[in-house]
Amino acid sequence: MVIKITLRGLKFFASIKNLLLYIWNIQLIQDMLRGFEYA
User: Fold this and answer.
1) DSSP per-residue string spanning 1-39
2) pLDDT tens across 1-39, in order?
3) Which pTM was predicted?
4) 17-24 own/partner pairs: CB under 8 Å, 24+ apart
């Protein structure tokens, strides 16, 4: 029981981390595109 809950929790935290990285990458790309516009 405990192991199943832990694995589920790890998957949950991993999905949150991936979501944050995805959002951060989009912001990074937008900043780069903005930099190209000003260049």
Assistant:
1) -HHHHHHHHHHHHHHHHHHHHHHHHHHHHHHHHHHHHH-
2) 577 878 888 999 999 999 999 999 999 999 999 988 776
3) 0.59
4) none
